[in-house]
Amino acid sequence: MMKKNEVKKNGFIANKYKKNKLIKNGFFTNRHNKLLKLGVILGFSISFLLGGCVNQHPDKEQPSTKETVADKNSSEDGKNTTAKDNSSEDGENTTASDNSSTDGKDITADKNSSADIDINSMLEITDKYERAAVESAKEKVEKLGRNPRIIATSPATADICDKLNIDLAGVCSSTVSTIPSRYKNVKKIGTAMSPDMEIVSSVQPDWILSPSSLKSDLKPKYEAIDTEWAFLNLKSVQGMYRSIQELGIIFDREKEADSLINEFVAFYKKYKSENKTKSHPKVLILMGLPGSYIIATPNSYVGNLVELAGGENVYSDIKQEFLTVNTEDMKKKEPDIILRAAHAMPKQVIKMFNDDFKKNDIWKHFNAVKEGRVYDLSYDKFGMSATFKYKEALAELKQDFERR
């Protein structure tokens, strides 16, 4: 039984109603004031992270009007721990998050490794309110009596739409990611971080799909136009597939969604079986930005990949997605492996890391550094959002974990 202001994970729908509450693990948002009046409203947002598809960090108060949801670790109250960078993959902010727990329990605290998680149960929509929200959105689409006009505002959301065989009326532009060729002649609405709202409005979309990490920036802009929107939490592979599942229901692409999900489940079961006897190295993940870096926890996409690969994040007991920690504290964790990823501008970030590891004396005292177990992750596979390159990413991690 939900308490009045309780927020649940694993919903991906966030709604735009007045006086609605958020239920984690849902991903979309609706527009009218009266949809469900069961004491719980249709304010679900679809976010999924680690351990399944966990929605990020919902605000504890009721959203005032059209409300979206955050993903498990990208803070929903709009507090960034890092600076935004327009050149970042999908233009997503790295944000701190709290309240990523379900019924007060943080997934990452309960599970030391995503490898222990039952993928099938993670993808199953068991919450009745989440299910009701998805069905309600589906009805809205059906009532249009035509194909909905949809805009995908990031490369990751565009890729998902492509895989689901969904036509778009508008799509983002990107200099760092390739937009699916089927959208070559579709109206460009600007970058993921800064969509041109005049163009967006001129497209007259019925739905706008965006990554949930940009909710705090984009929600006010979407509220100004007459449309439905959905913020997908792409902070984990599981979350991406949960989003796919619910989008399939809403936009009548269940056959395509089921095919993608079955492919993922089959892949992961095989991957887990092949790697169950492998060691589980303790891993420190550094996410670099030009001039600085932060720690990636299991609640980030890179952290999710590390756990799926069997690694144990040395900051696994943290609810936030990213955090700032001094090197002395990192040394106390004594990781077996140090992984370095780039939020943006990979060449500059790698140079920054190399310079810091040479100049900062403390690094030479890390066992991982002494043993040469410091690896730079491929920028195209380890971005801020879950993508279909996760298989290649896991293969790269497996290779890094087995290197001696």
Describe this structure in words.
It is a single chain. The model is unreliable at 1-26, 28-89 and 91-116 (pLDDT under 50). The protein has 13 helices and 18 strands. It has a six-stranded mixed beta sheet, sandwiched between helices. The chain has a domain at 277-402: 3-Layer(aba) Sandwich (Rossmann fold). Strand 13 and strand 14 form a beta hairpin. With 404 residues, it is of the alpha/beta class. The termini are far apart. One of its GO terms (cellular component) is membrane.
Short description:
Helices cover 33% and strands 15% of the residues.
SSE inventory with pairings:
Blueprint (H helix, E strand, L loop, with lengths): L10 E2 L9 E2 L1 E2 L1 E2 L13 E2 L11 E2 L13 E5 L31 H4 L8 H5 L4 H16 L6 E3 L2 H9 L6 E2 L15 E2 L8 H7 L3 E5 L3 H9 L4 E5 L4 H14 L3 H22 L6 E8 L2 E5 L4 H8 L3 E2 L8 E2 L3 H7 L3 E6 L3 H14 L7 H4 L3 E3 L13 H13 L2
Parallel strand pairs: 1-3, 2-5, 6-7, 8-9, 8-11, 9-10, 11-12, 13-15, 13-17, 17-18
Antiparallel strand pairs: 4-12, 13-14, 14-16
Helix pairs in contact: 3-7, 7-8
